[in-house]
Every structure is written in C-alpha cells, then in structure tokens.
Write a structure and sequence with these properties.
Serine Threonine Protein Phosphatase 5, Tetratricopeptide repeat; 2 domains; 9 helices; TPR-like_helical_dom_sf
Length: 190
C-alpha cells in the first residue's frame, strides 16, 4: 500500500507539472530556432540564478572610506569633502549617525555651501524624518545661493512630498513687498 500524499503536496506537485507543461514547449521552440544564437536565447529565457557580491566588493567600500578619511585629515574644513563623505556614509555605508556628524561639519564650514545644506536637508527629511529641521535647511540652501533654482526645486519637491500646504517661500524681499502694496512709512493725516 502506497503512503498517502498530503493534499498540499499533491496540489503543489500538480501546479509544478502544469508550470513545466507550459514552460517546456517554450524552451523547445527556442532551442529549435537556429536563427537565434545562445546569447540571444539567454536574453529571452532568464536564468534562475542570483549573483552574490564577491568579498572584494566590500573592500571597495573600505578603500573609499579610507580615501575620504585621508583627504579630510589633510583638509578637515572642506565642505565638498565633508558633504560627499556624509553622503557616502548615509547612502552606501548606512551609518546615519556618523553621516549626520559630517553633514553638520559641512554646514558649519566656511564659506557657506548651499549644496551641503540641500543634501543635509534631504538627509534630515529621509533618514531622520525631521521635517521642521529639513525645511529650515532647505531655506538656508536657497538663501545661500538664491540664483540657483535647483535648491528651490529641491524645496518644492520636499513640500510636495510632505504635504507642506501652509508653507511658501517668499520670492521677493520685504522692501519689494512694501513697494507693491503701496504702503509707505509716511502716513498722511487728514
């Protein structure tokens, strides 16, 4: 007497047989077609493999980190190096605490760097979910380089994605606003 199969095993087996009955004719059709070379066939039939990153892949991370650290030891107040290293720590190494430290150093560096502020704002928004601090940092980036529309676009993207409905960036100075409204400091008394 044969052992009884569990219903889930027989159902799984029937699904597998059905899949194979659909798959095998496709494989045979591709195999018969002599016009297609092996490389083209591989593009049609995706192999069931997973590539594992080699161990030396992570060695590249360490080399990159060492390069940043060496460069920063020679020029510790370089905002470009600081913000790029912070980006590396945030996006590649996933070390948000160290990334934030380097973002803060980049923002504190002189001269004022709008790019550092914009990238730090994105970090505050995405990694820390600190919308208020991100908003302030985006506004600082815009203020640091008002002629570059990229920072205003970044801020608009932030507002769009976070639902900042009651927020707007003033496009004119207070003096210009006063001129447009017709209000002046001279009041006429009747």
């Amino acid at each position: 007497m044969a052992p009884r199969e569990k219903p889930s095993q027989s159902r799984g087996q029937s699904i597998r047989e059905e899949e194979m009955s659909l798959w095998n004719p496709m494989v045979q059709a591709f195999s018969r077609d002599e016009a297609l070379d092996h490389e083209t066939m591989q593009k049609f039939i995706s192999p069931v493999t997973a590539k594992v990153e080699p161990d030396d892949y992570y060695a590249e991370y360490f080399r990159t980190e060492l390069t940043y650290q060496t460069s920063l030891s020679q020029d510790p107040s370089n905002a470009v190096l600081l913000v790029n290293y912070a980006q590396f720590l945030y996006l590649v190494a996933h070390d948000n605490d160290r990334a934030e430290e380097y973002f803060k150093n980049a923002v504190a560096a002189e001269p004022v760097d709008a790019e550092a502020r914009s990238k730090y704002a994105t970090f505050l928004w995405r990694a820390r979910s600190d919308l208020w601090a991100a908003k302030e940092m985006y506004l600082e980036a815009i203020s640091a380089d008002a002629s570059n529309s990229f920072y205003a676009a970044d801020y608009a993207h932030f507002l769009w994605n976070t639902g900042g409905e009651d927020t707007c960036f003033p496009l004119s100075s207070p003096e210009e606003d006063q001129a447009w409204s017709g209000d002046s400091s001279d009041t006429h008394e009747a």
